[in-house]
Amino acid sequence: MTPDLPVVDPPDSVADPVREKRVAGVLLAAGTSSRFGERNKLLATLNGEPLVRHAARTLADAAVDPLVAVVGADGDRVAAALDGLGFSVVENPNHAEGQATSVRAGVRAVRDASDVAGAVFALGDMPLVASTSVDALVAAYRANEATALAAAYDGERGNPVLFDSRYFDALADVDGDAGGRDILLSGGDSVLVETGDPGVRRDVDTRTDLDRIRERGTRF
């Protein structure tokens, strides 16, 4: 049974932040798209742009810095799709072993920066997340709501997630496809941040998922 996490609203403002160092943005964009078919779903187009570029722009427009993209399958093409958005690109040669390997690669890219307090981990197959949802996570974190936070819609857990740097070593040790999910759910200082954004619950696994998004329209 999945444990329930408390749900908090993001603060309207953070006049006296508890945490002032930078929060990094890590885009996990290395997957093999096994359920999508022969094409890499991250390179499928949505409103004339690759899916992954929409997800990357969410971080680029949010209050996170530095920006890191972890690529794997079709790495050169995925990296090219991010051109001009300000991302440093990290190659994950072990991407076929699961999402945790990309989390590890992202953590290694940001944890040695002395002025980084934590990191937001976003998924490359979630093109509908608003940048304001990322900002809501960061604001709640700076206001000391918790040290592990996940975006939520209507009280239901979604993505992206934010982890304080105290979890970086543990994230570097995770295995399989869970990424940091177990750390989030088992942590004693974890919350869901209500964003009011249905995009935090919508990913693209199959062609049907993408067709539905195209039919219903997007904010982009």
From TrEMBL:
Superkingdom field: Archaea
Residues of the MobA-like NTP transferase domain: 25-185
Annotated GO MF terms: nucleotidyltransferase activity
InterPro entries: MobA-like_NTP_Trfase, Nucleotide-diphossugar_trans
Coiled coil: none
Key words, A-Z: Nucleotidyltransferase, Transferase
Gene3D superfamilies to which the protein is assigned, alphabetical: Spore Coat Polysaccharide Biosynthesis Protein SpsA, Chain A
Pfam families per UniProt: NTP_transf_3 (PF12804)
Name of this chain's protein: Molybdenum cofactor cytidylyltransferase
Taxonomic source organism: Haloplanus aerogenes
